[in-house]
């Protein structure tokens, strides 16, 4: 009963799920659903996920969508996933839920608003929208500032003060990485003020490499393709 | 070690948490944080929740914010909470996570956008914004349509096909109830097309009464106060 992951690596939550599988030795089949070609809107994919979004998984007869729910399912169902990803301890686990819930209404809205209204707009046949980009940058900065001053206080290596990452670190860092698409200059301008955030991204990358770099290659490739 | 719930009943996720406590016989102390008076922005409350949002709980030395994380913590930590609220079964539990995650980026944005830009605007010293209200109505309708056609397909009484509600039913229904603030005419216009959603709201109300009606009294009281 091999796990099927419906994926387009351009999607940041897709990358989080695939990195999680790779790091934890979970065998999976990656089924490409090309977002730019609107394959997520087809009747075939709607049978997998009626919400027409990526990622989605099928495991035997069990279907699931929403990346946080998928990460929790994988951590809970596959033997051999280390406890630090999604601890059994109810207090630690609750803190992870809290970060992930906060992520939805805060950080997540930053990178997606920035890239969809700038570099990715032509890919998805949308107009450029500098006002929306500015709004996205404000959301991103506010969220990074909260992460820096609250969750990464005391120079913790990861969000919850442990020495190894949880699914919350992976999810949030993959979302921030999407900002790489707008180029190094803007990345440095937007991330520059947040030294602890930068170190935390590096810690999460190191803890999940070589898979982290492998999965993020798509950003560099797309950026080069769009520039040519 | 009595649970402290930081609350303003005007907030829909606050109501979900308090109804959950009442229905499950969880003893709690309700500590009012008046949103209209900006008490959630004070240094005192920032010590409880640095994100300055409601609800938040303190249980002994353990602090937690984000209503979904709180509901899961309460269901996991307090003896006597029936399994249907947050089942031990990994498949059922994963479906609940999936609904709750989807809720963040979809349904939740509808009611809050509608009421904050119409009836609640004067309370929070914000201008009325009919364009934002229209956008909120679109988000709400799209979300209700998905709930009606997917989760409530086959005339299930609750979202996950069980005969008793989960924390997902409670969270989503409390959010929709906020639309009552704009009045019966608009409620009927917005909810009218979704017969299964209406029945599901009624099922959730019946399964949690008298606490459901008690907690929602605040909506009628505020509406009358604003009209006078």
TrEMBL record, chains A, B:
Give the Pfam families listed for this entry.
GST_C_2, GST_N
Example GO BP: toxin catabolic process
* Residues in GST C-terminal domain copies: 89-226
**Limits of the GST N-terminal domain:** 1-82
Catalysis: reaction(s): RX + glutathione = an S-substituted glutathione + a halide anion + H(+)
Keyword annotations for this protein, in alphabetical order, are: Detoxification, Transferase
Sorted alphabetically, which InterPro entries does this protein's record hold?
Glutathione-S-Trfase_C-like, Glutathione-S-Trfase_C_sf, Glutathione_S-Trfase, Glutathione_S-Trfase_N, GST_C_Theta, GST_N_Theta, GSTT1/2/3, Thioredoxin-like_sf
Statement: the UniProt record of this protein carries the keyword Ribonucleoprotein: no
Q: What is its EC number?
A: 2.5.1.18
Gene Ontology molecular functions: glutathione transferase activity
Q: Which top-level enzyme class is recorded in the Swiss-Prot or TrEMBL entry?
A: transferase
Tell me which family the UniProt entry assigns to this protein: Belongs to the GST superfamily. Theta family.
Q: What is this protein called?
A: glutathione transferase
Organism encoding this protein: Gossypium hirsutum
Q: Could you tell me the gene encoding this protein?
A: LOC107924543
């Amino acid at each position: 009963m091999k796990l099927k992951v419906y994926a387009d690596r351009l999607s940041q939550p897709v990358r989080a799920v695939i990195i999680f599988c790779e790091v934890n030795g979970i065998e999976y089949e990656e089924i490409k659903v090309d977002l730019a070609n609107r394959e997520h809107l087809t009747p075939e994919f709607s049978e997998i996920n009626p919400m027409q979004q990526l990622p989605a998984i099928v495991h035997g007869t069990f279907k699931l969508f929403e990346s946080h729910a998928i990460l929790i399912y994988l951590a809970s169902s596959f033997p051999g996933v280390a406890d630090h990803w999604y601890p059994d301890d109810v207090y630690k686990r609750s803190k992870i839920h809290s970060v992930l819930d906060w992520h939805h209404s805060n950080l997540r809205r930053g990178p997606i608003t920035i890239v969809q209204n700038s570099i990715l707009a032509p890919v998805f046949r949308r107009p450029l929208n500098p006002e929306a980009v500015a709004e996205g940058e404000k959301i991103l900065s506010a969220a990074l500032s909260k992460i820096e001053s609250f969750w990464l206080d005391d120079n913790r290596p990861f969000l919850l003060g442990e020495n190894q990452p949880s699914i919350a670190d992976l999810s949030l860092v993959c979302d921030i990485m999407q900002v790489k698409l707008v180029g190094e200059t803007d990345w440095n301008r937007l991330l520059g003020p947040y030294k602890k955030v930068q170190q935390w991204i590096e810690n999460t990358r190191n803890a999940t490499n070589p898979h982290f770099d492998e999965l993020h290659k798509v950003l560099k490739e797309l950026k080069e393709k769009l520039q040519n």
